[in-house]
Amino acid sequence: METLLFKDWQSSVNVAFCALLSFIVAFLFIRISGKRTLAKLTAFDFVVTVTLGSTLSSMILGKTVLLDGAIALAIIIAMQYLLAFIAMKLKPVEKIINSKPTLLYYNDHFLEEQMEREVVTKEEVYAAIREFRLLRIEDVKAVVMELNGELTVVKKNEPDLENNSLQDIPQV
User: Fold this and answer.
1) Which of 62, 123, 163, 164 is the most exposed place for a label (fewest CB within 10 A)?
2) Superfamily for 102-155?
3) Can you give the residue ranges of every domain in the chain?
């Protein structure tokens, strides 16, 4: 039981040193990898974040040698960019990596089937509308659940155009 709280000073110093160096290495890799690593998470990004965190944890606790951990971090980030690049070039891969946005409300109607499939309540749709600073639901053209699970509200203030931001979403 006594080793559960304190093993020895050398072990504590090792963890402190590994935590400091691991934090610096992770910070540098995140800065190098750019904004995509920090963007709101899609399922793909979530997996990357969890694996980065797990690797960083192993580095901090000294379960992985720092150089090996740095190599693992670099590979995870490189794989994220490689798969994102391939998905950008090949639509079938993009469909595997990213989900599609889902229309939850359109032209004065809640789309119950889609809401049920995405497990979204009317209250959550109303909350999204309020978050977009709209009072009247009549002012809403559409509410979309985006790839990252965020709800986006599109106002009715524009006439229906062929080329609009809703064109990639299957409409009812």
Assistant:
1) 163
2) bsu07140 like domains (3.30.240.20)
3) 2-96, 102-155
Q: What angle do CA 137, 138, 144 make, to 5 degrees?
A: 60
User: Helices 66-89 and 9-33 meet at what angle, rounded to 10?
Assistant: 20
pLDDT in tens, 26-59: 777 767 765 555 556 677 777 888 888 898 888 8
Nearest 5°: the CA angle 138, 167, 119 is 65
pLDDT digits (tens, 9 = 90+) for 107-133: 999 999 999 988 899 999 999 999 999
Residue 111 to residue 122: CA distance in whole angstroms: 10
- Supply 165's token pair: 């931001």
Q: What is the pTM of this model?
A: 0.60
